[in-house]
């Protein structure tokens, strides 16, 4: 691993940092309170190459590497976690899969619009009855004699579902074949047979709109299949490996924002005649937060490095991605909790962002595979046992 960054990597990090600090962080409280979708900020991120960081320039992206993606995501999440969720889904879950498995026409049609930030993308795997056990999905796509598919079923917890133009959907085409009977489809939400449910009220990342979606006799053309028939589960899992690096980066950025707020506060807040940072109990918290933050950041960069290697030489980086996601999300929960505690009553107040950081952190332990699923993936890969 190279611990130095290239000029290009630092450049995209600085662009993300500037937008995050000038536009995103100042508006985060508003979007959290109202639950409005931050469309203008997302468009700005798109205009600056941040909605398709690893997308080649030929398809409207910035043409950067996985390390650049991590560096940019950390900055955006430090500005606001909800914004970074929208960025992560567009970059990792949407663009990645199409770039890897899509046809030239699919890349031109779907990736370009999303990478340029003109449209929003989504990823639909979870259902009301199946989350961690993704192969238990009920959404069906039935092949017709003319090669088209008729899709019926529901998907839930769809990030950016209320605003997405295009969705990568996973549906069962051959229920008898289990994981090998799942196929991925490119969905155009303006076509008949596609419906949206109500936007979910959530504990955190409230500006990232989430809803249930439903398909009623939605017709997908043969050329709207992503990859090949029956390849859907492998696509979903591969894409989630990339997605988990995005969530790890998000957790690092959020944790950094909470840590920096705590570090400033312990130097200025006085108690018993001295700065609270001079008390050993606070010092222990600062030291523990700093160790967890640095470890999470290094593991996330290692996962990005492993992804870049896998892209060059083949192979998987599932273990590195799950280690990074597990470590970073649990560290974000720990650090936001400690930062709130250090701020006392002010941390609990909506006048400061600490309570929002704390609420936002929780989702990083749940979506794109819960902490329990990350432990399962890591242990299976390490032991070779199931
Ligand atoms: N890459 C490529 N292929 C993979 C893979 C990967 N990372 N992981 C598994 N596969 C392949 C396996 O090799 C296997 O293929 P073979 O039979 O040919 O060997 C096939 O997929 C089935 O694998 P498993 O037997 O391991 O499958 P499983 O049913 O035991 O499930 C699991 C494994 C790890 C539990 C998986 O279901 C999982 O990750 N579940 C969590 C789902 C998840 O993360 N959901 C998040 C929803 S998306 C979201 O949150 C997005 C958002 O909006 C923010």
Keywords:
386 residues; alpha+beta; Butyryl-Coa Dehydrogenase, subunit A, domain 1; Butyryl-CoA Dehydrogenase, subunit A, domain 2; Butyryl-CoA Dehydrogenase, subunit A, domain 3; 3 domains; four-stranded antiparallel sheet; 11 helices; binds acetoacetyl-coenzyme A
Question: Whole-number average pLDDT?
Answer: 97
Q: Low-confidence segments, ≥5 residues, pLDDT <50?
A: none
Across the major sheet, the strand order is 1-4-5-8
**Number of helical segments?**
11
Which percent range describes the beta-strand content?
Answer: 5-15%
Radius of gyration: 21 Å
User: Total number of β-strand segments?
Assistant: 10
Number of domains: 3
Structural class given helices, strands, pairing? Answer: alpha+beta
Give the CATH superfamily of the largest domain: Butyryl-CoA Dehydrogenase, subunit A, domain 3
- Examine the secondary-structure arrangement and name the CATH architecture of the largest domain: Up-down Bundle
Element-by-element helix/strand order: HHHHHEEEEEEEEHEEHHHHH
Helix proportion of residues, in percent?
Answer: 40-55%
Description:
54% of the residues lie in helices and 15% in strands. The chain has three domains: 7-120, Orthogonal Bundle (Butyryl-Coa Dehydrogenase, subunit A, domain 1); 122-229, Butyryl-CoA Dehydrogenase, subunit A, domain 2 (Beta Barrel), CATH 2.40.110.10; 233-383, Butyryl-CoA Dehydrogenase, subunit A, domain 3 (Up-down Bundle), CATH 1.20.140. The radius of gyration is 21 Å and the shape is globular. The protein has a four-stranded mixed beta sheet with strand order 1-4-5-8. With 386 residues, the protein is of the alpha+beta class. The longest helix is centred in the middle third of the chain and has 37 residues, at 232-268. The chain starts with 6 loop residues before the first helix and ends with a helix. The protein is built from eleven helices and ten strands. 53% of the residues are buried. Strand 2 and strand 3 (149-159) form a beta hairpin. Bound molecules: acetoacetyl-coenzyme A (CAA).
